[in-house]
Amino acid sequence: MALASLKELYLDELGDLYDVETQMIRTLPRWSERAQAPELRAALAACGLESRLHLERLQLIFTHWGLPAAPRTCAGIAGIVQEADDRLNQVTTRDLCDAAIIGAARRIEHYEIAAYGSARAYALRVNRADEARLLQETLNDQGRADRGLAALDGSEAGDDSRPVPARAERSVSEPRWTAADR
Questions:
Q1: 55 within 8 A of 47, measured Cβ to Cβ
Q2: What is the pLDDT of residues 119-152, one digit of tens each?
Q3: CATH (residue range 6-157)
Q4: Which ranges of the chain would DSSP assign to H, the alpha helix?
Q5: Per-domain residue ranges for the chain?
Q6: In the chain, what's the furthest Cα-to-Cα distance?
């Protein structure tokens, strides 16, 4: 289907996000079962609950338009999930499993942050300020989730591209996996 207007692009983006949240509701419990650290299991469970809330917000936006929710398959998230599942089948230690789960979950959070940010911008451009506010709430949730996952692996959320000095001391506790696992 050709997209001929910003409204159509916006609704298409919302459909993509609807599928993202649906995929997360199916995927996160499976990853939680594989996770070893109780903190990681709790973070994944919280992300799953938030995905349900995000799905409700998206349904509300579709209702505002007088449309049924129109999910469309999100190949990007499906690819991240498949890549993560493949990697999880290759890891050899419990700590590596947790590290792989955190990495995959953060990739998904970053995808969602970019997609929700675009959807929010489209909502503003089509004069749907209430919808933009709902999307901003979800963006805030995604940012908190990413920071929480980053804390679990010892990285600094939002600063992953910043070079780390060779002799820098970490301000957070070291990750659970050892140098031999890296």
A1: no
A2: 999 999 999 999 999 999 999 999 999 999 999 9
A3: 1.20.1260.10
A4: 6-34, 38-64, 75-88, 94-125, 129-153
A5: 6-157
A6: 58
